[in-house]
Amino acid sequence: MKHTQNLNLLALATLIALAVPVYAQQAAPKPEDTEVWSPVPAVVTPGATNTAAPSDAIVLFDGKNLNQWESAQDHTPAQWIVSDGTMKVKKAPGVGNIQTRQAFKNYQLHIEWKIPESITGDGQARGNSGVFLASTGPGDAGYELQVLDSYNNKTYVNGQAGSLYKQSAPLVNPNRKPGEWQTYDIVWTAPIFNEDGSVKTPAYATVFFNGVLVQNHTELKGETRYIGAPFYKKFDGAPIKLQAHGDKSEPISFRNIWVRDLK
What we know:
Layout: H1 2-26, E1 58-61, E2 69-71, E3 81-83, E4 86-88, E5 98-100, E6 107-114, E7 129-135, E8 142-147, E9 181-189, E10 192-193, E11 199-201, E12 204-209, E13 212-219, E14 241-242, E15 253-261
Antiparallel strand pairs: 1-15, 2-5, 3-4, 4-15, 5-14, 6-9, 6-15, 7-8, 7-14, 9-12, 10-11, 12-13
């Protein structure tokens, strides 16, 4: 019996001795093991400045015309005012929100906006507008990123500039004074729906406001609702919409709008 035990111990020791070189070989990976060489990312030429459109962007407004825009109500040509390289909300009967002629799903959006220096009013009646990241119907249907003068202007925090309206307050308040241009850089991830209309994955938005992160891959609970809780309605791609809120203050201005479709 003792002889057998010795043989078994000898066999075990031999196996261990044989395994050690193999283990040692596996435990010493090479740098090349984790190098990925393809597919090679497409080359994109950046804009001359951080706010200029890169080479693969779709320019939605370059200060010249509204060819990329239509009425959100009836799809007729947009009737906002274009002057001095900007466009302004036009306050006239029958003129309301405008939206892109093209529908988008997931994208990167750059847009600049300005509250008039002569703004009056307070709270929500101080340069109110909105960027609807997906316009799912006429009126104010869709997912709204709030535009407002929030420089020394008190209102509910999930309704100030940089908020996903009535859902998520901005992380900080980086507003500039009225009369100065403000910038939104947005990454929008559209919701995905199951065949029965239920939500497979929700919508997310990341927003930089004047270069400052204010929404960090924020999950949306559904479409924007002025009254009541948000909820989802199935859609597949939608225009980007700009809001003509209808407050009595001087119209706000927009410029330099471009989008990168993220396939």
